[in-house]
């Protein structure tokens, strides 16, 4: 009976995620009334998918703790949806739905891989969402945010330097600070946000050559510190984000192509200097020749993806734990193995719809600082998704970055939720701008009114 339930659940989960994905792209073409129904239907699909996944895991394990954990997640997601829509009526519903969807998929996959880690992730998500709930309010009310460029830049540099000097070594890179015996924080995840705000603040004021040089030097120092800490994945994300925002602000192709050339040169130098970079390139170029050593992680990832097929093996039917660091760097491979290739593709498309919405919000903002900041945060999110999934499918060498909201990691989770909340705040700013414009259109100008009376 359990085998039948698992087999049928594969098709049910695939259909539900496909419907949710389809609506993520088609819903925006509808009128307001249709959009409201569509967003509501998305939430229903989310809860059905979440219920089905946990029902299957319960039948497989008969662990009563899963029932309590499932109810806690339902309450959390419901509370987040209700509070955001009540306190912020103009909130972007697609961004909110996608945030909850990705968070729920993360809980499902982590519960399958490690119940204890899933519970820890849930606790961090609960605290993070409490903090993030106030972020849109602060974005709307704190009008001095565009003028804090050196605060953003200085705070980010201090955090990176501290990690470089006293950070904990992890697989050859200094990434985190140990706070007590069982708690560690990865500051670079939060420095990404500070870096995006710094870049937006500087370039929104001036794109004169002298100012661009100063901003580029500070940005370069960020990247160099990350390289010295051997956090090359983080350095690459910072570098790409800065190039995109610089090009958007200056409209100068020379900056873009010059930066790309410099990046290629820096990649070659990093390959020559760092042994673990050469190991990752070797594992990427020919993993099956080194399947017992350097290529073990990527080959296991490819085996998992290939084994899953279109509809997956079913929850608890695969062996994703054979992949080292599967909860963090290779969670996409675990999704593909047990939930299927279609589910994995839909997950990519949902991440893509979030990225496109970030960029769409950025392009509609009138204030340059907020426009560039939203574009920077969107670039950080989109490129990190690309690096994580690209590394897992052997499209690019593995960079050791997480899949936002899905992978295990408290710092990554909090930083991703902060990014989504900041984008929500900027979307509300856009709504405020449109409301103000509408009011100005309705109220006739004083001079015109007096002239009309005089002519009468």
- Report the mean per-residue pLDDT as an integer: 89
Rg measurement, Å:
23 Å
Summed up, the helix count is 18
The percentage helix is over 70%
- Compute the number of strand runs: 3
Report the principal-axis shape: globular
Distance between the termini: 86 Å
What percent of residues are in strands? under 5%
Order of helices and strands: HHHHHHHEEEHHHHHHHHHHH
Cross-sheet strand order for the largest sheet: 1-2-3
Largest sheet entry: 3 strands, antiparallel
What structural class do helix, strand and pairing data support?
mainly alpha
User: Could you list the spans in which at least 5 consecutive residues all have pLDDT below 50?
Assistant: none
Write a structural description.
This protein is mostly helical and 456 residues long. The chain has 18 helices and three strands. It has a three-stranded antiparallel β-sheet, with helices on one face. Strand 1 and strand 2 form a beta hairpin.
Concise account of the structure shown:
The protein is an all-alpha fold. Helix content is 76%, strand content 2%.
SSE blueprint and pairings:
Elements: H1 2-26, H2 32-61, H3 64-87, H4 93-113, H5 115-132, H6 135-141, H7 149-166, E1 168-170, E2 173-178, E3 184-185, H8 188-205, H9 209-228, H10 232-250, H11 253-273, H12 275-285, H13 296-308, H14 331-338, H15 341-364, H16 368-392, H17 410-442, H18 446-455
Antiparallel strand pairs: 1-2, 2-3
Helix pairs in contact: 1-2, 1-15, 2-3, 2-4, 3-4, 3-5, 4-5, 4-15, 5-17, 6-17, 7-8, 7-9, 8-9, 8-10, 8-16, 8-17, 9-10, 10-11, 10-16, 11-12, 13-14, 14-15, 15-16, 15-17, 16-17
């Amino acid at each position: 009976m359990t085998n039948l339930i698992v087999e049928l659940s594969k098709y049910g989960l695939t259909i539900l995620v496909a419907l949710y994905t389809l609506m993520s792209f088609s819903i925006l073409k509808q009128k307001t009334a249709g959009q409201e129904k569509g967003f509501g239907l998305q939430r229903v699909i989310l809860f059905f998918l979440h219920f089905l996944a946990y029902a299957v895991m319960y039948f497989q394990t008969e662990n009563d703790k899963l029932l309590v954990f499932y109810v806690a997640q339902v309450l959390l997601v419901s509370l987040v949806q209700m509070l955001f829509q009540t306190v912020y009526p103009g909130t972007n519903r697609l961004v909110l739905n996608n945030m909850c969807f990705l968070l729920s998929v993360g809980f499902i996959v982590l519960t399958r891989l490690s119940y204890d880690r899933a519970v820890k992730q849930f606790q961090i998500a609960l605290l993070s969402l409490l903090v993030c709930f106030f972020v849109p309010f602060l974005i709307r009310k704190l009008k001095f945010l565009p003028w804090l460029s050196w605060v953003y830049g200085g705070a980010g540099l201090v955090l990176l330097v501290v990690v470089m000097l006293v950070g904990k070594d992890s697989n050859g890179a200094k990434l985190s600070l140990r706070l007590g015996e069982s708690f560690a924080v990865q500051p670079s995840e939060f420095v990404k946000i500070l870096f995006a705000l710094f870049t937006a603040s500087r370039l929104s004021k001036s794109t004169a050559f002298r100012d661009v040089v100063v901003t580029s030097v500070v940005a370069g120092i960020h990247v160099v510190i990350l390289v010295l800490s051997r956090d090359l994945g983080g350095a690459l994300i910072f570098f790409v984000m800065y190039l995109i925002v610089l090009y958007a602000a200056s409209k100068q192709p020379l900056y873009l192509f010059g930066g790309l050339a410099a990046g290629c040169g820096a990649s070659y130098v990093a390959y020559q200097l760092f042994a673990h970079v050469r190991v990752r390139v070797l594992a990427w170029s020919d993993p099956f020749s080194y399947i017992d050593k350097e290529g073990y992680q990527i080959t296991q990832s490819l085996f998992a993806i290939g084994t899953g097929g279109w509809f997956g093996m079913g929850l608890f039917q695969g062996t994703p734990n054979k992949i080292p660091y599967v909860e963090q760097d290779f969670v996409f491979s675990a999704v593909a193995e047990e939930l299927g290739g279609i589910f994995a593709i839909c997950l990519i498309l949902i991440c893509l719809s979030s990225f496109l919405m970030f960029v769409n919000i950025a392009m509609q903002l009138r204030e340059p600082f907020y426009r560039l900041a939203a574009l920077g945060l969107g670039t950080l999110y989109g490129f990190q998704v690309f690096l994580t999934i690209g590394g897992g499918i052997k499209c690019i060498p593995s960079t050791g970055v997480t899949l936002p909201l899905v992978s295990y990691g408290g710092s990554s989770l909090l930083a991703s939720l902060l990014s989504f909340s900041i984008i929500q705040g900027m979307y509300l700013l856009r709504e405020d701008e449109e409301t103000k414009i509408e009011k100005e259109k309705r109220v006739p100008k004083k001079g015109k009114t007096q002239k009309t009376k005089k002519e009468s």
